[in-house]
User: Which sequence fits this backbone?
C-alpha cells in the first residue's frame, strides 16, 4: 500500500500546485494592470502561412481578411499551403490574392512531423532557408479564420515594443453556434484570454493556441530547422520549447482571429481527443525537464512549465481528488474496517486541501466567469452560461480520461 499512497499523494499534490498557481495568476488579472504595447511605425516583415486540406468552402475568408490588412503590403506575404487537396482550394486561394504552395510543387521536399506541423514545415522548406529568412516572423492562420484588420499592425507593435519576443499570440475568439459544447468552449476562451493569457503574457508565458500567432524566424524557426514541433499539438509543444529555452511568449488582447467552434458531440469528441493526446505527448517530452528544473534551478518559467503540463490532470482531478473525497467522507464509515488511507498527509492537511480545492474550483468555474459576464449579460444569463460551461468541463474531463486511457506515443 505504500506505493499507492505515494502515487496518489504525488498526483493530488501536483493538482494542488497547478490550481494554486492559476489562482495566483488570476489575482493579477483581477487587479487588471497589464503591459499593453503602444502603436509603433510598421517595420516588421511577416510571412503568413495558411495550412489547408480541402478547404475550398472557406479559404477565401482568411485570404480576403489578410488582403485588407491596415498594414503596408510590402511588409507581408500570404501563402496558402494546399496539402494533398483534391478540391479547388489552391485555385480559389490564388484567385483571392494568396500565393499558393501545393503538394505537387515540392515532391523532393522531405516531410517531418505530423498534422499541421507537417504541413507548415513542408511549406517553409519548399520556400527554402534563404527565402524564409527575409521575414522577421512566421505567422500561422487557420484556413477558416476571420482575421481582424489591425492584426499585423498589432503584431508589429508587440515585436517592436518587446524587442522581438520568440512568439506572440493574439486574442482568440470562436464562432457562435448552439449547444453546451459551443457555449462552454466560447466561455473558456473568454475566461482564459483574460485570466490566463493577459497576466501570463506579461510574464512572457502566454499560451500558443494553434492559430493567430507569430513565431520568430531567427530565434525559433532557424533553431529547430523549420516548423518541427513533432506532436499532435504543435502549438503547445512550441510554447513549452520556447519557455524552457528562456524565451518569451507575449499576448495581444486588442486584436483577434475568430476560429470555428464545435457544436456536435461527435465532432467535439474527435477534436478534443486529438488535442488531449497531443498534450499527453507534450507531457512526456517536458515532464522530466519540469520536475528536475523546478528542483535544481527553480524559476517562474520552469514552474510555469510544470503547471502547464499538469493541466493534463484535469481528468485526474475529477477521478482522483473528488473521487477520493467522496469515498473518504461519504462512504468512509462503511469501509472503516478496511482502513484505507490514500494520502501520507495528516488529516488536518487533507481537510485544508479539500477546502482550498473547493475555493479554487469556485474561482475558476464561477467567480472568474461571473466577473467577466455579469456586466454584459446580467445575473440570469450569466448563471445559465456558467452552468453550460460546467457541463462542458465535465464532458471535457471525460474526453481527457478516454484520450489518456487509449493513448499510445508516436
Assistant:
Amino acid at each position: 500500500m505504500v506505493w499507492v499512497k505515494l502515487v496518489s499523494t504525488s498526483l493530488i499534490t501536483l493538482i494542488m500546485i497547478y490550481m494554486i498557481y492559476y489562482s495566483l495568476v488570476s489575482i493579477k488579472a483581477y487587479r487588471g494592470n497589464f503591459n499593453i504595447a503602444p502603436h509603433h511605425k510598421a517595420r516588421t516583415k511577416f510571412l503568413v502561412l495558411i495550412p489547408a486540406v480541402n478547404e475550398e468552402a472557406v479559404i477565401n475568408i482568411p485570404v480576403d481578411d489578410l488582403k485588407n490588412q491596415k498594414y503596408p503590403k510590402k511588409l507581408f506575404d500570404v501563402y496558402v499551403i494546399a496539402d494533398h487537396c483534391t478540391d479547388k482550394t489552391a485555385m480559389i486561394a490564388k484567385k483571392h490574392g494568396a500565393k499558393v504552395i501545393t503538394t505537387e510543387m515540392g515532391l523532393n521536399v522531405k516531410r517531418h512531423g505530423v498534422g499541421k506541423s507537417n504541413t507548415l514545415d513542408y511549406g517553409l522548406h519548399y520556400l527554402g532557408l534563404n527565402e524564409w529568412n527575409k521575414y522577421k516572423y512566421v505567422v500561422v492562420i487557420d484556413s477558416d479564420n476571420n482575421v481582424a484588420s489591425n492584426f499585423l499592425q498589432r503584431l508589429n507593435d508587440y515585436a517592436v515594443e518587446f524587442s522581438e519576443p520568440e512568439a506572440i499570440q493574439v486574442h482568440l475568439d470562436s464562432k457562435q453556434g448552439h449547444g453546451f459544447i459551443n457555449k462552454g468552449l466560447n466561455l473558456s476562451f473568454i475566461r482564459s484570454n483574460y485570466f490566463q493569457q493577459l497576466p501570463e503574457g506579461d510574464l512572457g508565458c502566454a499560451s500558443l493556441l494553434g492559430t493567430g500567432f507569430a513565431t520568430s524566424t531567427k530565434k525559433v524557426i532557424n533553431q529547430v530547422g523549420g516548423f518541427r514541433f513533432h506532436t499532435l499539438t504543435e502549438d503547445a509543444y512550441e510554447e513549452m520549447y520556447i519557455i524552457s529555452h528562456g524565451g518569451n511568449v507575449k499576448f495581444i488582447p486588442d486584436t483577434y482571429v475568430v476560429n470555428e467552434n464545435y457544436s456536435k458531440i461527435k465532432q467535439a469528441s474527435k477534436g478534443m481527443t486529438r488535442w488531449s493526446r497531443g498534450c499527453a505527448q507534450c507531457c512526456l517530452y517536458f515532464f522530466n525537464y519540469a520536475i528536475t528544473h523546478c528542483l535544481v534551478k527553480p524559476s517562474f518559467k520552469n514552474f510555469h512549465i510544470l503547471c502547464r503540463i499538469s493541466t493534463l490532470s484535469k481528468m485526474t482531478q475529477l477521478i482522483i481528488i473528488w473521487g477520493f473525497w467522496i469515498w473518504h467522507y461519504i462512504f468512509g464509515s462503511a469501509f472503516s474496517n478496511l482502513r484505507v488511507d490514500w494520502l501520507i498527509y495528516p488529516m488536518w492537511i487533507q481537510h485544508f486541501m479539500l477546502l482550498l480545492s473547493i475555493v479554487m474550483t469556485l474561482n475558476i468555474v464561477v467567480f472568474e466567469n461571473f466577473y467577466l459576464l455579469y456586466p454584459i449579460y446580467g445575473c440570469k444569463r450569466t448563471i445559465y452560461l456558467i452552468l453550460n460551461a460546467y457541463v462542458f468541463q465535465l464532458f471535457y474531463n471525460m474526453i481527457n480520461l478516454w484520450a489518456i486511457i487509449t493513448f499510445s506515443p508516436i
Observations:
- The first helix runs from residue 2 to 31.
